[in-house]
Amino acid sequence: VDLPSLGFYDVRDDGVVVMEWADKVDEKLLGDHVRVEFGFTGETSRRLIFHARGERSEKLLRELNLSP
């Protein structure tokens, strides 16, 4: 994936970027971010797991009570 051509670095620090199939991108290129895993828990239910990948993201998840 060519992140610069998608404008990723233009919006990364000032907004929210949602990337489906982000596992196709080297996490080192993403910088500080929150990874959200979606898991199936039933036919109509899902579990979301949030992973902080950096200091700013850890703070955000703590403020939202989404971090231990």
- State the end-to-end distance: 33 Å
The biggest beta sheet is recorded as:
2 strands, antiparallel
Helix content: 25-40%
User: Which residues form runs of ≥5 with pLDDT under 50?
Assistant: none
Please identify the structural class as seen in this structure. alpha+beta
| Shape field | globular
Mean pLDDT: 82
* Radius of gyration from the alpha-carbon trace, in angstroms: 14 Å
> Could you give the order of strands across the largest sheet?
1-2
Q: What's the order of the H and E elements? A: HHEEH
Number of β-strand runs: 2
**Which range does the strand content fall in?**
15-25%
- The number of helical runs is 3
Please tell me about this protein's structure.
The chain is an alpha+beta fold and 68 residues long. It contains three helices and two strands. The relative contact order is 0.14. The model has no long low-confidence stretch (mean pLDDT 82).
List keywords for this structure.
68 residues, 2 strands, two-stranded antiparallel sheet, 25% helix, alpha+beta
Compact overview of the structure:
By secondary structure, this protein is an alpha+beta fold. The chain is built from three helices and two strands; from the N terminus they run ααββα. β1 (33-40) and β2 (46-53) form a beta hairpin.
Give me the secondary-structure topology.
Layout: H1 8-11, H2 27-30, E1 33-40, E2 46-53, H3 55-63
Antiparallel strand pairs: 1-2
